[in-house]
Design goal:
The protein has 15 helices and 17 strands. It has 402 residues and is an alpha/beta fold. The radius of gyration is 22 Å and the shape is elongated.
């Protein structure tokens, strides 16, 4: 995989450099609530601009249906200009008149952002010809391709997989960093190796659990997915999130963990409430704490309890490597943030090399006010990180390795 430093050594002055970034930031209307992904790509863009490149930044945002939708416009990516300290031009389409004119108007060292790639159906098409046709039109906008959107490298999309084949291609600083970190989680791992998995659905984590049973020393489970594990052990889980169809798979994982000597840690107490909390008003949700094996019918588990928080901290304190993906509860509401806060604090207090695996975990770290520098690495790609740890080939990385 060639890197951006090799590209810079060859010289980029006057060249149109297409940077596939991941600007898929969470929005409240048009307000960015977490700009972490934008900040993560700034070093690559800034370095190219300083070297005289004409930088064309492209990304997706949300899941529009292959056509323009104002709710998913990349216009809020104007934040990129604030972070760069320079004006950033914006094209109102992806490969149309506006994009061509905007790119043509760039001078050396200037930056432009084109509109949401997913406004064109060819970006996400499963048809190779349709996807390739869109990649052909994107290629007309540039002389060189730099992949730096780690959060999208697990997608076989036109701008991620097909476009690099049409242009000289290089990995940006963010992708190089992310891959380097993930290698520390898969080869020559320092032990004890602890993994913390949370989030809503156990089905989203089956592949990574299967893979980690061969590699991790401890696996700590929280979040909505914990209730399927508790149910698999025969416990009442009330009205908590439950994937009954996954119970046989979960029981098999618990059996395999015991057989292999992998410590599987589940909540011993949980915070429950009668219903899911209102995340807009943050109105009091009337929580109570109950033993994990004594949840009342009609109550919904929404966070780890205080004894679980102490238990999980004790399982992380002596770890040499920790990977965390997924919050422990509904951290967006103050009544159910303690479990996620406790895991984050345990990682801050631990001397372990800690990796926060993107997505909601990364957002939680920022929302709860933790210093990002207190963690070994905060990934920009939750799904991409998990698929890498599953041992899957990621299309966007494979395309850069050619």
């Amino acid at each position: 995989m060639k890197t951006i430093d090799e590209l810079l050594a060859e010289g980029v002055a006057g060249k149109r450099v297409f940077v596939r970034a991941d600007l898929n930031v969470p929005l409240d209307g048009t307000t960015i609530t977490d700009d972490g992904r934008i900040r993560a790509v700034v070093p690559t863009i800034a370095k190219l601009a300083e070297a005289g490149a004409r930088v064309v930044v492209a990304s997706h945002l949300g899941r529009p249906k292959g056509a323009p939708d104002p709710a998913f416009s990349l216009a809020p990516a104007a934040r990129l200009g604030e972070l760069l300290g320079a004006d950033v031009a914006f094209a109102a389409d992806t490969v149309g008149d506006s994009a061509r004119a905007t790119v043509a108007g760039l001078a050396d060292g200037q930056v432009a952002v084109i509109e949401n790639l997913r406004f064109n159906a060819g970006e996400t098409s499963k048809d190779d010809a349709e996807r390739g046709a869109f990649a052909d039109r994107l290629a007309e906008l540039a002389d060189v391709y730099v992949g730096d959107g780690f959060g999208a490298v697990h997608r076989k999309h036109a701008s991620v997989f097909d476009l690099p084949a049409r242009l000289p291609h290089y990995a940006g600083y963010l992708i190089a960093t992310e891959v380097g970190v993930l290698k520390k989680l898969t080869t020559d791992v320092k032990r004890p190796y602890a993994v913390v998995l949370g989030g809503a659905k156990v089905s989203d984590k089956l592949g990574v659990i299967d893979h980690l049973l061969e590699r991790a020393d401890r696996i700590l489970i929280g979040g909505g997915m914990a209730y399927t594990f508790l149910k698999a052990q025969g416990h009442e889980v009330g009205s908590s999130l439950l994937q009954e169809d996954q119970i046989p798979a979960v029981q098999e994982y618990l059996r395999r963990a015991e057989e292999k000597g992998v410590e599987f840690v589940l909540p011993v107490d949980v915070v429950v409430a009668p219903s899911f909390p209102d995340l807009k008003t943050k109105a009091p949700a009337h929580p109570t704490t109950v033993a994990a094996d004594a949840m009342p019918a009609g109550q919904m588990g929404l966070d780890n309890g205080p004894e679980t928080n102490k238990l999980y901290a004790s399982k992380l304190v002596d770890a040499a490597t920790v990977f965390w993906n997924g919050p422990m509860g509904v951290f967006e509401h103050p009544d159910f943030a303690d479990g996620t806060r406790a895991v984050a604090q345990a990682l801050v207090d631990s001397p372990a090399f800690s990796v926060v695996g993107g997505g909601d975990s990364a957002a939680a770290v920022r929302i709860l006010g933790f210093d990002e520098n207190a963690f070994g690495h905060i990934s920009t790609g939750g799904g991409a990180s998990l698929e890498y740890l599953e041992g899957k080939t990621l299309p966007g990385l494979a395309a850069l390795e050619d």
